[in-house]
Design brief:
With about 300 residues, this protein is an all-alpha fold. About 70% of the residues lie in helices and about 0% in strands. The protein has a two-stranded antiparallel sheet.
Length: about 300
């Protein structure tokens, strides 16, 4: 896939998920209006939409059309945004800037931000339960719900955030740091790929194991690249406060193994992720392109 083709595909899918999210989110003029406005403020009009892109790309790799997994793409993005709203709170990372604009609790207030995150998580599972375009199989739909629930909970994203908070100000070994990243960021990326793949595959399909390996490695590469960008990027480029992890004395890959070794690890993981797709043909080109973009991005 050429760079120009990649841009066209990405732009089209990013616009698609924007429209899907807008349709599922409650209108701001419906009661309680301030809560709905807060939800829409954080979800719409920003973000790279990495997780929805992975959903759509994995669906394409297993022969499913985008409309088959619109609900999965929306659900995983809503869980991601809920986590950002809560991560930015004073009790967590206490950030003022997200996606180039004031964080939710700064634009509204802390109580509204908490409720917005809660409501977005609930809406994600509502979509998976009722969206008529998702696979008709009850077993497949339940598996999608299970995958997202596990990725969001204590064995995934929430657990990774707990490890991150507990580790602030102290050193982690490399295996401990990897576990934190695999849970905090990798779990939701892994879920995005597997949920998308279930748009065109059923449990037991041999392709799912290859996609599992791809998702694990590209998810860890994503977070290490984030660690690198926190060290090397600037606030305007990143859309959030640069150097925040260092300022909070948080464990990161550059802090543990250095910038050069971190870049080498990203390259290694990227290569392994692409190798996992070697038995796929052009149907996985979009997934390969998203993997390339994840490790080459500058924000």
């Amino acid at each position: 896939m050429s760079l120009s083709e990649q841009h066209v595909r990405f732009d089209a899918l990013q616009q698609r998920i924007e429209e899907v999210l807008d349709q599922w989110l409650p209108p701001a003029d419906h009661n309680p209006g301030r809560l709905h406005e807060s939800m829409r403020y954080s979800v719409l009009g920003g973000g790279k939409r990495v997780r929805p892109l992975l959903v759509y790309a994995a669906a394409e790799a297993t022969g499913a059309r985008p409309e088959r997994v619109d609900g999965c793409a929306a659900a995983v993005e809503l869980v991601h945004v809920y986590s950002l709203i809560h991560d930015d709170l004073p009790a967590m990372d206490d950030d003022d800037l997200r996606r180039g604009k004031p964080t939710n609790h700064k634009a509204f207030d802390e109580a509204t931000a908490i409720l917005a995150g809660d409501a977005l998580q609930a809406l994600a599972f509502h979509i998976l339960a009722v969206d008529p375009q998702l696979p008709e199989s009850a077993a497949t739909r339940i598996e999608m719900i299970r995958i997202l629930a596990e990725a969001a909970g204590s064995r995934g994203m929430a657990g990774g955030q707990a490890i991150d908070l507990a580790a602030t100000g102290r050193s982690l070994t490399l295996p401990e740091l990897e576990e934190m990243h695999v849970r905090k960021t990798g779990a939701l990326i892994h879920a995005s790929v597997l949920m998308g793949a279930l748009g065109g595959a059923e449990r037991g399909d041999a392709r799912l194991q290859a996609l599992h390996r791809f998702a694990h490695d590209i998810g860890l590469a994503f977070q290490i690249q984030d660690d690198i960008l926190d060290e090397t990027g600037d606030t305007e480029q990143l859309g959030k406060q640069a150097g925040a992890d260092r300022a909070l004395n948080k464990p990161t890959y550059p802090a543990v193994i250095g910038l050069d070794a971190s870049r080498e690890e990203v390259e290694l993981l990227h290569d392994r992720a692409l190798q996992a797709l070697e038995d796929f043909g052009p149907e996985a080109d979009l997934l390969r392109a998203v993997g390339d973009w994840i490790v080459q991005r500058t924000h």
